[in-house]
Amino acid sequence: MIDLSIVIPSYNEEDNIEPLYNRLNNVLQSITDKYEIIFVNDGSKDKTVNKIEMLCNVDAKVKLVDFSRNFGHEMANTAGINYASGDAVIIMDADLQDPPEVIKDMYCKYLDGYDLVYAKRSKREKETFIKRATSKLFYRFLRYFSNIEIPFDTGDYRLMSRNVVNEFNRLKEHNRFFRGLTHWIGFKSTCVEFDRLPRNTGKTNYDFAKLVRLAVDAVISFSYKPLKIFNIIGLSIALFSFFNIVYWIVFKITTKRPVEGWTSMIIVILFCSGIIMMQISIIGEYIARTYEEVKNRPLFIVNKTIGINDNNFSIKEKEAESIKKD
Ligand code: UDP
Ligand code: MG
Predict the structure, then answer these.
(1) For residues 19 and 15, what is the distance between their CA atoms, to the nearest angstrom?
(2) How high is the mean pLDDT in each 10-residue block of the chain (326 residues)?
(3) To pair with 157 at 20 to 30 A between CA atoms, which of 92, 231, 265, 310?
(4) What contacts 122, CB < 8 A, 6 or more positions away?
């Protein structure tokens, strides 16, 4: 029986694994001795996996899930949660931006009866202006477009109770936004505040383009608002055109002058085609995602695991499937 699982998605973090492990150990030992640390190696190109294997050899509490290639941060989170067997599961980054000391506060809240405890960033030390500005924009954008309340200034760093984890494991969608999903699941939630520190070593894996992608994923997987906006734009243009038609017909009948206005015509044509193209591309996004989901491929492929035992998810899932077949 394990009280607490720590899940750490890791991509090119060779210099962070050991310092993180050392700090984690200190914190975890003061909470419980029934814990596990699951590193998910997301197809790192450096020596991350060797570093994790070294830790697995000296400490049976350290476990490894090694992907066959890079499947991305979201899938690494998903795999780690699937394989975790603790009563509570914590997700944290490998780069020490999420200080392990916060785990104590989160665990206390969990013991108080909360199912989801997310860490809220109170200060963003030394993050670049652009990073802070884009992140602010990101949360505003999300809050406006998505149908669920995602609290400002939270990352993936959070604790989930077994209730939340079990529900999370039932979600099979490919386009996923972990932060949003944990709130979508519901149950009683609260937050603890912490200062988000700069990365220990290495560089961020999220450039601007990836952040935009994440935002689009987040919005499209949670809301139909982008489609609805075009309904409104379409309707407004149709109304405007209707009045125009009436105006020009009356103009033609009453003045008998040939209609001028190549400029206004071309403006209207360009404007409307622009709107239509945008609308089609947004519909395309939804269709592409639907296609992605109906293919129903596995979410990730595991090369090997170390230390993961019978309690783990894939075995439980196989059992459940065999029961269904019987
Ligand atoms: N990560 C991952 N797969 C990826 C990219 C990132 O598992 O394809 C991990 C990374 O190792 C880190 C966490 O996800 O533990 C957050 O990534 P990063 O620190 O680059 O993001 P930021 O903190 O800058 O938002
Ligand atoms: Mg980071």
Answers:
(1) 8
(2) 92 90 90 92 92 91 93 93 92 89 91 91 69 76 74 85 92 86 88 77 72 78 80 85 84 78 82 84 86 88 83 51 54
(3) 310
(4) 153, 193, 194, 195
Number of domains in the chain: 2
CATH at residue 172: 3.90.550.10
Q: Which atom of ligand 1 is nearest to the CA of 76?
A: 7
Q: What pLDDT sits at residue 315?
A: 46
| Structural tokens at position 224 | 């139909």
> Does one domain contain both 165 and 231?
no
How far is 281 from 75, CA to CA, in rounded Å? 26
Q: Does a structural domain hold residue 251? A: yes
For ligand 1, atom 13, which residue shows the shortest CA distance? 93
Q: How far is the CA of 187 from the centre of ligand 2 (A)?
A: 27
Is residue 213 in a domain? no
246 and 267 fall within a common domain: yes
Domain around 109: 4-207+298-325
Q: Work out which ligand 1 atom sits closest to the CA atom of 199.
A: 19
Query: Same domain for 116 and 202?
Result: yes
Farthest-apart Cα atoms in the chain, separation: 93
Name every protein residue with a CB atom under 6 angstroms from any ligand 1 atom.
9-11, 13, 42, 70, 72-73, 76, 93-95, 97, 204-206
Distance CA 25, CA 58 (A): 13
12: left (phi over 0), alpha (psi -120 to 50) or beta: left
